[in-house]
């Protein structure tokens, strides 16, 4: 049993090494990794590098609203990417918006991953009625467009970063449960698990010490792409008028606010945050896609 | 076999029931439609009469049972906002959505399949990599922002196409369509393109993966060895082989787009079913939302049911006890 | 066969896209009427559409002054009895003559209206104790209580033709079905036009929900004939596409283009526009009753909104002119009361509600809040023009004087039910006066509610001023116009001084149209083909 684990771990390390090497060798992927790093850094440092705190209403002035990129405000500040309808500096708003989008993307994915992995593991381990029950719920969740579920849920519980995260967790856990179950079922048929069962090890130990670590890699790989999905979902929800509070706009909300000004030629309110959002999603997708291929996971 | 069909039938009914409960409660939870419908100056008595007429004074479960009873009789309720049957409202919007999705999926196929073939035949070539990277972009663009940028480019900057709405329609066999007028097509172009892009990316990936796989198959190698021209190989062997998964996926996408192309219809103010659904949610027009989701679910469940039965009938390996992984 | 069909379609397409006749008019609406039935739902788009096909006994002019319509004159006995003389020689579009019977029939329909939304006209006719027709050209209405606004309200009740239903002698006896022997029509019955028979300047042609309403000139109209043979209304909910459609020549008239876009047609000789102040006032309603209030956090744990000084400070902190300039793009008038001056019962020269942040800070300190307090402003984001932007701008101004403000913006579907449950501390509101009188806002929002909720139904903030209550209750039953106007002015001053409602501005309505047309805007925000004339 121990031996098989060592072998498995070794194979894992080798694979990881291979993946790293492949990431380094591909220019697109390398670019994506660097871009993702920059975006993460910008989001992290937003409070220190942004010219303005866009969440502080006292520092905004409606008299400076809808200024073109490069305009100078009443207080002498230069708005390099222009301002929105509330006089928010778009550059600052985008930096803070990146923060919100990443926060929502990462936390909700972590939450959904936790719940989904647990549910999938339980389903695979116990089988029978428990499995059937869990999987029917999963089917049900995956059968609906996630945007609709989240929209209706948020409409009834209101706005807030925390609430958006809850909504996204609710619509995303199911896909992890399905993946985890599939991976764990494969793992369960392996000899070392059978040996462990025959050995009389407690179920909990088998689940947590063997099944979980040996079948989670594929789920983790897919989750990179799901972070992008979660960020898109948040943006879309904000576009539809539910989502984060209007005074703390995420990238999606900034775009939504810019929509009505687009046709009047005030393109910068929707266009610039959109570019930031697309860069973020795209780099996540590229990295995730490469990871997935390297691990040869058939996701979704 | 009969037992299997029966079992699947029961499962389908259970799914419908579950969906109806969840949707009913979810819409119930959003808010009280009376405050939206009835102006505030109305006297308490009149307001109460209206509440009773709509059955909103009953507890949620009684309202649900009432709905269920009517639904079994084929009556999915009357719109709170328009006062006409919810199903009529939904069906009146069907042609607009249908033509939009039809055009979008055709675009996706016409552009996606050749590009997919190209990328699949030489997966390591530069153009192929560019195409595959392009598909990632296609997946990454959030639908609403992409729509806006299409409007910005083609309507605001270039002024070629109208920004939104449906154009001139003509009636074909009593069904209004804008596919046959120039104005209609102009209005269709941007929303259809917006819907088509992610599907195009999907098509490319499916076709490329299938092609690459098919090219390594023995029969293709054999044909090559025999000196069959590659055009013929692609046309006869590869394409035919990948068409089944492509058609299956395209069909499923078609279905879900017809039912839920809400975002694109919202951005382009397209008077289709998805827009109706969003509007109805915002207007708390409960009967329309519930009827809509029920119809969509019914459609999906029915299709799934038929597919499963067909599979079971055609493929003896399918476990007939209903335990399908 | 197929080819032939296609050819036929292409041919018909070409015909359809041929240049429209000069006599037809295409108008793009921002919100679509929800039904053709004129008694279904008392909504602005529905009433505006109904006014094309149907007449009321009276009508309101552009400034909401009451004018004769199907009634040529009316008088009141100083109590509850009104006598209306009906116009002679009027016929419905189906050729039937118009008589007092049609009036009784229509009033009955509003009460025998199974599918109607509550408060849609039945609240008016429900107050009638009797409606009699001493002769075919006279209608006598008796109301439960004296109602000085009856002629105003009658302008909104469309008169249907009694010929659409089988009936015996028509009487205003609802219990006996008014003498009608057939089944009263429901809302859906009107949509195909068979029942949409009126005396208005236009008649119904077709209605496709979400796509268009088509009307044609009523050649039997009793008044001056309209210049347009055909009128089409097209719903285009987004402002951008609406304007784009006008610029492209698809529409002749559009309502509510975004104010910022007016600059684009200003210098274009092909188009023209009109900005008309409306009676719709936008304001904040404060919770002045509860202790504590759900969305207020002060260091002393109290509800500072109960303090008139704090309310005054809040009003002083807001720069109304800046909001109108920067957010409304000029398409609004600052509001220092709840109905624009010039309207019935409004002050001619209300004192300006000035922007003075220094004075606001001073007042806050005097009230015991030198460090301000925390508050959440609740707002819709899909109901009034720029509603959520306005609230955010106000939040900026309040924060700048120390009242740290959050904004909770939500769809009206969520907002209105929550506001009715009094879940907010500071709530954005909007109110247009359908009667054109100052009483409309005051009795609905500021009055202490009565049992039946006929007044004070929207007093969610718990404002209570006994002196004001006395004034408003007197005003709404005073038949003498001069006296009533005077009392309403006094009542209005009380509410402004009370500070529980902070008015911001009156929305203006914009119509843009081709330069070869002339459009007269209306204060009630109705968009009507009757307002469009060819320019000379």
Descriptive overview:
The complex is a heterotrimer of chains A (300), B (325) and C (536). In chain A, strand 1 and strand 2 (78-79) form a beta hairpin. Residues 1-9 of chain A have low confidence and may be disordered. In chain A, helix 2 (27-49) crosses helix 3 (90-126), helix 5 (146-157) packs across helix 6 (161-188) and helix 9 packs across helix 10. Chain A has 10 helices and 2 strands. Chain A starts with a helix and ends in a 5-residue tail after the last helix. The radius of gyration of chain A is 23 Å and the shape is elongated. Chain A has 300 residues and is mainly α. Chain B is an all-alpha fold and 325 residues long. Chain C has helices at 2-16, 44-53, 100-111, 122-125, 150-154, 239-247, 262-266, 308-317, 320-327, 357-366, 387-400, 412-420, 439-446, 466-475, 481-498, and strands at residues 24-29, 58-60, 66-68, 71-76, 81-86, 128-132, 138-143, 202-208, 212-217, 230-235, 253-255, 271-286, 296-297, 332-334, 373-380, 403-410, 426-431, 501-514, 517-519, 532-534. In chain C, helix 8 runs antiparallel to helix 10 (357-366) and helix 13 packs across helix 14. Chain A binds chain B through residues 28, 132, 139-140, 143, 145, 147-149, 151-153, 155-156, 182, 185, 228, 232, 235-236, 239-241, 252, 255-256, 258-259, 262-263, 265, 267, 270-271, 274, 277-278, 281-282, 285-286, 289, and chain B through 15, 18-19, 22, 26-27, 29-31, 129, 133, 136-137, 139-145, 148-149, 151-152, 155-156, 163, 256, 260, 262-263, 266-267, 277-278, 281-282, 293, 297, 300, 323, 325.
Q: What proportion of the residues of chain B form beta strands (DSSP E)?
A: under 5%
The pLDDT mean of chain B sits at 82
Q: How many helical stretches of chain B?
A: 13
Sheet with most strands of chain A: 2 strands, antiparallel
Structural class based on helices, strands and sheet pairing of chain B:
mainly alpha
Kindly provide the radius of gyration of chain B, computed on alpha-carbon positions and rounded to a whole number of angstroms. 24 Å
Unreliable stretches of chain B:
320-325
The strand line-up of the biggest sheet of chain B is 1-2
Tally of extended strands of chain A? 2
Q: What separation lies between the terminal Cα atoms of chain A? A: 32 Å
In quaternary terms, these chains amount to heterotrimer
- How many helices of chain A does DSSP assign? 10
Overall, the morphology of chain B is: globular
Total DSSP E strands of chain B = 2
InterPro entries (chain B): BPD_transp_1_N (IPR045621), MetI-like (IPR000515), MetI-like_sf (IPR035906)
Protein name (chain B): ABC transporter permease
Domain ABC transmembrane type-1 (chain B): 94-311
Organism (chain B): Microvirga terrestris
């Amino acid at each position: 049993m121990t031996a098989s684990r060592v072998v498995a771990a070794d194979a894992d390390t080798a694979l990881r090494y291979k993946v790293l090497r492949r990431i380094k060798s591909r220019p697109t992927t390398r670019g994506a990794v660097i871009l993702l790093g920059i975006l993460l850094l910008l989001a992290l440092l937003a409070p220190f590098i942004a010219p303005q705190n866009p969440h502080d209403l006292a520092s905004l002035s409606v008299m400076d609203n809808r200024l073109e990129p490069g305009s100078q405000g009443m207080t002498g500040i230069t708005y390099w990417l222009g301002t929105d309808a509330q006089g928010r500096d778009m550059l600052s708003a985008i930096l803070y918006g990146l923060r919100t989008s990443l926060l929502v993307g990462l936390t909700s994915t972590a939450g959904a991953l936790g719940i989904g992995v647990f549910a999938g593991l339980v389903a695979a381990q116990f089988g029978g009625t428990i499995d059937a029950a869990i999987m029917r719920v999963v089917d049900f969740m995956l059968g609906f467009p996630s945007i609709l579920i989240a929209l209706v849920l948020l409409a009834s519980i209101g706005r807030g970063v925390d609430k958006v995260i809850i909504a996204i967790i609710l619509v995303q856990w199911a896909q992890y449960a399905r993946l985890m179950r599939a991976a764990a079922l494969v793992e369960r048929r392996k000899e070392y698990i059978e040996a462990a069962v025959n050995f009389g090890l407690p179920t909990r130990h088998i689940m947590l010490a063997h099944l979980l670590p040996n079948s989670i890699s594929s789920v983790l790989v897919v989750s990179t792409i799901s972070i992008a999905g979660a960020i898109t979902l948040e943006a879309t929800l904000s576009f539809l008028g539910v989502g984060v509070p209007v005074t703390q706009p995420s990238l999606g909300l900034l775009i939504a606010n810019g929509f009505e000004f687009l046709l009047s030629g005030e393109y910068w309110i929707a266009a610039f945050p959109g570019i930031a959002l697309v860069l973020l999603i795209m780099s996540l997708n590229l990295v995730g896609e490469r990871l997935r291929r390297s691990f040869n996971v058939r996701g979704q | 076999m009969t037992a299997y069909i029966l079992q699947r039938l029961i499962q389908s009914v259970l799914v419908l029931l579950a969906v109806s409960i969840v949707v009913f409660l979810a819409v119930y939870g959003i808010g009280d439609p009376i405050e939206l419908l009835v102006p505030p100056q109305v006297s308490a008595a009149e307001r109460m009469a209206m509440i009773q007429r709509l059955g909103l004074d009953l507890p949620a479960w009684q309202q649900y049972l009432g709905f269920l009873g009517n639904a079994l009789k084929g009556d999915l309720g009357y719109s709170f906002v328009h006062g006409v049957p919810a199903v009529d409202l939904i069906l009146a919007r069907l042609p607009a959505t249908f033509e939009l999705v039809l055009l979008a999926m055709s675009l996706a196929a016409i552009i996606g399949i050749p590009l997919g073939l190209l990328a699949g035949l030489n997966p390591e070539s530069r153009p192929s990599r560019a195409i595959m990277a392009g598909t990632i972009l296609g997946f990454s663009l959030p639908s609403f922002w992409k729509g806006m940028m299409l409007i910005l480019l083609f309507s605001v900057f270039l002024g070629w196409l109208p920004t939104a709405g449906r154009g001139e329609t003509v009636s074909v066999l009593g069904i209004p369509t804008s596919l046959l007028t120039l104005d209609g097509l102009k209005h269709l172009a941007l929303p259809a393109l917006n819907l088509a892009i992610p599907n195009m990316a999907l098509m490319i990936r499916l076709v490329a993966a299938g092609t690459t796989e098919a090219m390594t198959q023995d029969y293709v190698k054999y044909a090559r060895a025999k000196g069959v021209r590659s055009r013929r190989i692609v046309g006869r062997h590869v394409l035919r082989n990948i068409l089944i998964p492509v058609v299956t996926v395209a069909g499923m996408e078609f279905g879900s787009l017809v039912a839920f192309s809400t975002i694109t219809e919202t951005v382009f103010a397209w008077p289709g079913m998805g827009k109706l659904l969003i509007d109805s949610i915002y207007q708390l027009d409960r009967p329309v939302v519930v009827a809509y989701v029920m119809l969509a679910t019914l459609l999906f469940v029915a299709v799934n049911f038929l597919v499963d039965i067909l599979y079971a009938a055609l493929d003896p390996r399918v476990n007939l006890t209903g335990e399908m992984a | 066969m197929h080819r032939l069909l296609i050819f036929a379609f292409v041919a018909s397409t070409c015909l359809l896209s041929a240049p429209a006749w000069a006599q037809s008019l295409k108008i793009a609406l921002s919100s679509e009427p929800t039904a053709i039935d004129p008694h279904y739902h008392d909504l602005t788009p529905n009433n505006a559409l109904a006014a094309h096909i149907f007449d009321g006994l009276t009508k309101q002019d552009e400034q909401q002054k009451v004018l004769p319509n199907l009634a040529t004159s009316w008088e009141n006995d100083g109590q509850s009895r009104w006598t209306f003389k009906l116009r002679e020689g009027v016929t419905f579009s189906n050729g039937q003559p118009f008589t007092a019977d049609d009036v009784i029939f229509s009033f009955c329909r509003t009460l025998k209206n199974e599918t109607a939304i509550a408060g849609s006209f039945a609240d008016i006719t429900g107050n009638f104790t009797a409606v009699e027709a001493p002769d075919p050209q006279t209608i006598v209405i008796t109301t439960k209580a004296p109602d000085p606004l009856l002629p105003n309200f009658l302008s909104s009740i469309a008169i249907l033709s009694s010929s659409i239903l089988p009936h015996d002698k028509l009487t205003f006896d609802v219990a006996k079905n008014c003498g009608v022997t057939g089944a009263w029509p429901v809302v859906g019955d009107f949509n195909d036009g068979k029942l949409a028979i009126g005396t208005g300047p236009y008649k119904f042609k077709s209605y496709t929900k979400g796509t268009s309403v088509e009307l044609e000139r009523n050649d039997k109209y009793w008044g001056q004939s309209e210049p347009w043979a055909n009128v089409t209304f097209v719903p285009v909910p987004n402002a951008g596409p609406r304007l784009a459609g006008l610029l492209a020549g698809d529409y002749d008239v559009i309502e509510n283009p975004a104010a910022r876009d007016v600059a684009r047609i200003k210098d274009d000789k092909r188009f023209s526009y009109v900005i008309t102040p409306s009676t719709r006032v936008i304001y904040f309603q404060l919770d002045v009753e509860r202790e504590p209030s759900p969305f207020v956090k002060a260091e002393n744990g109290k509800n500072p909104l109960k303090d008139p000084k704090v309310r005054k400070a809040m009003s002083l902190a807001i720069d109304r002119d800046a909001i109108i300039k920067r957010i409304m793009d000029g398409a609004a008038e600052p509001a220092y009361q709840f109905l624009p001056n010039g309207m019935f019962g409004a002050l001619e020269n209300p004192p300006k509600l000035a922007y003075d942040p220094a004075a606001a800070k001073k007042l806050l300190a005097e009230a015991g809040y030198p460090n301000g307090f925390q508050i959440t402003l609740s707002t819709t984001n899909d109901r009034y023009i720029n509603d959520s932007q306005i609230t955010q701008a106000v939040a900026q101004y309040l924060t700048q004087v120390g009242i740290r403000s959050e904004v909770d913006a939500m769809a009206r579907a969520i907002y209105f039910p929550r506001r009715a449950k009094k879940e907010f501390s500071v709530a954005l509101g909007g109110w247009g006066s359908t009667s054109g009188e100052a009483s409309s806002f005051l009795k609905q929002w500021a009055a202490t509610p009565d049992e039946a909720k006929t007044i004070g139904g929207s007093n969610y903030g718990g404002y209570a001023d006994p002196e004001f209550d006395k004034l408003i209750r007197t005003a709404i039953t005073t038949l003498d116009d001069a006296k009533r106007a005077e009392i309403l002015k006094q009542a209005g001053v009380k509410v402004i001084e009370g500070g529980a409602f902070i008015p911001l501005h009156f929305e203006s309505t914009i119509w843009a149209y081709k330069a070869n047309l002339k459009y007269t805007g209306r204060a009630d925000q109705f968009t009507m083909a009757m307002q469009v004339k060819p320019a000379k």
